[in-house]
Amino acid sequence: MIEAVGLTKRYGDKTAVYNLSFQVRPGAVTGFLGPNGSGKSTTMRMILGLDQPTSGQVTIGGYPYRRLPNAPRQVGALLDAKAVHGGRSARSHLLCLAQLSGIPARRVDEVLGVVGLQDVAKKRSKGFSLGMGQRLGIAAALLGDPQVLLFDEPVNGLDPEGILWVRNLMKSLAAEGRTVFVSSHLMSEMALTADHLIVIGRGQLLADMSVKDFISHNSADFARVRTPDTEPQQREKLTAALTEAGGQVLPEQDGALRVTGLPLPRISDLAHEADVRLWELSPHQASLEEAYMRMTQGAVDYRSTIDQRAGLQQPLPPGVTPPQPMPVPGQGQSGWYAPPPPQQGGQPFAMPQAPAGAPYAGGQAAGPYAAGPAAAPNPYAQPPAAPAPATPDTTQRTSEDPR
Amino acid sequence: MTTPHPQQVNQQAYAPAPQVPAAAPAGNWQAGPGGLYTSPIPVTRTHLGHAISSEWTKIKSVRSTMWTLGVFLFLVIGIGLLVATQTNDRDYVNVPFSLPAFFGLVLGQICLITLGVLVVSSEYGTGMIRTTFTASPQRHRVLAAKVLIYFAVAYVTSAVAIGLVGLATSAMHSGPEATGTEWAGTVFKGALYVSLLGVLALAVGSMLRHSAGAITAMLGLVLVPAILPAFLMISQSTRKIGEKMMDYNAPNSLAKIFGLDTESGHGNPQLWLLIGLTVAALAGAFALLEKRDV
């Protein structure tokens, strides 16, 4: 089990990680998510004792990493696929790591087989593709057959077959009772692999909950409604009617309406009452990806803008209007993400339980291993008394301002 | 449900992964440490020996080792034999038979310096160091193993090269009037000097963590004291510094070891200076190693 308490790392006046506390438990795949530069890799390096935290501490099985007696036999890590000497063959690379922790050389050939690199074992790793490099890194992590595994972006550069393999590998490692901690910036990938999620942005904890909770708390369903393009007044009429009935209506780029807070049949009824024809009435699910992006959009450090190419363009001949490019969703516009799910009462990303009773309150005497079932708040179990979902709460919704 | 869709749809869509394991591990970790994974491979207690065998695998599995040592052998033996053939028996009355190796060593020491730097800094350059220090968080053990392995390799290689040149020369020139001085000592001392220079380079490489920077720094350390005295001698005030530099620079120290300048202790003071310098640099390297982030 990995346990971080108040982990903080500063580089000069830049704070990479601030007051991060979490636990990673055995028997599950824990996803570690965050935008680029949010401090995922820094946290990973601090877990592995490569970087010294400015304050706070992180332990594995109760020990700081650098005090583990035979670290590779307890913790395996893939940090960076290119963290190998390119001039060394794959087998020599693994062999020198195996010798360092007293692992028999036989094990090297074993893990080479596991990751499918046995045919290129004698080749210098300089010529490896990114995917092969990832496989070599995974082989190094598996070498010590450790109890705890850390993977930093393991699917980078892998082909679809490799991604599926990694996904299944993670799950099977967790099923054996190991602790698996995987960082990624791909929410979609984590949704398929992880059981539990730790989301950080700008070095701070944004969410620490099971994937199931994350989905129910952060993904919003909506209906797409399209009125005849030829009659814009119908669209306004419907918008008014829907808003009046308590729905939230957002116009979409192509002229359709995105409606939340009303069931499909109700929308149809309202349209009928308002005497508006519908060209489209379809159910949609905001993806987990979208929920994640909405959660982290305030914490993104590196944001793309529209490429203006200003100053490089040839002056247009007089009388020619420049072509207006179709805007692409997500490029330099805000408000593209789905609206926040209504059941949260305006607080965008509430944790499922109040932090007070949370299992992450560091100093609690009853550790997760301590008592049996009595050790109540188990983040992997169902939330005991589900605070929100289940039933529609109309009063809350109406109080939440119709737009 | 406030949304047009029942929550179930939502869950079904993402069901495959999260739903099933979400319940299973709960029981798993609550069961306590008994449910944890334990490896069937026996866990051994690691020590310096493991790090040494690992470093041995590392040093012999990269080409830079073969290249630098190959060039070193070529320079020392090649130039040595060339010099040996161009001299005659009378030249070896007052100097050891291993002297021809000196000329090769003056150039060849640069190869050993390069290898010494690369042993450490190539790991920083490639990022391998993070893998290494993850595999052995006892960083001092890794550096100690690197120093020992490098020193052994450099010492054996240079001793063999100097010895070969000495043997060849003595075979060519052991005429009646060329008694030759005792030359076994020069083999050990010469090899020790260039190997220590390499260990110093290794320590500098570990502190600077940058191949080109560390090699440049070492070349400066070797060459500047050999060149600078020429300018320092001009002024009376700096003359003393110039003379010291003249006495203790690397090429001159080697010359003393090989008996070209017999009046001052066969290069022993120079050897002691280098030992002191190397120990200091190693101490710095070890201290920084534990402190810094990688």
Automatic annotation (TrEMBL), chain A:
Top-level EC class = hydrolase
The annotated regions of Low complexity compositional bias extend over 344-379
Q: Where is the composition biased (Pro residues)?
A: 315-328, 380-390
Instruction: List its EC numbers.
Output: 3.6.3.-
Say yes or no: keyword Hydrolase present: yes
Family membership noted in the UniProt record: Belongs to the ABC transporter superfamily.
Checking Gene3D superfamilies in the record gives: P-loop containing nucleotide triphosphate hydrolases
Region (Disordered), start-end ranges:
311-403
GO MF term set: ATP binding; ATP hydrolysis activity
From the Swiss-Prot or TrEMBL record, give the protein name: Putative ABC transporter ATP-binding protein YxlF
Q: Which domain of life is it from?
A: Bacteria
InterPro entries assigned: AAA+_ATPase, ABC_transporter-like_ATP-bd, P-loop_NTPase
From TrEMBL, chain B:
Q: Which parts of the chain span the membrane according to its record?
A: 66-85, 97-120, 147-170, 190-208, 215-234, 271-289
Superkingdom of the source?
Answer: Bacteria
Q: Does the keyword Isomerase apply?
A: no
- Keyword terms of this UniProt record: Membrane, Transmembrane, Transmembrane helix
Q: Which residues form a coiled coil?
A: none
Whether DNA damage counts among this entry's keywords is: no
Q: What is this protein called?
A: ABC-2 family transporter protein
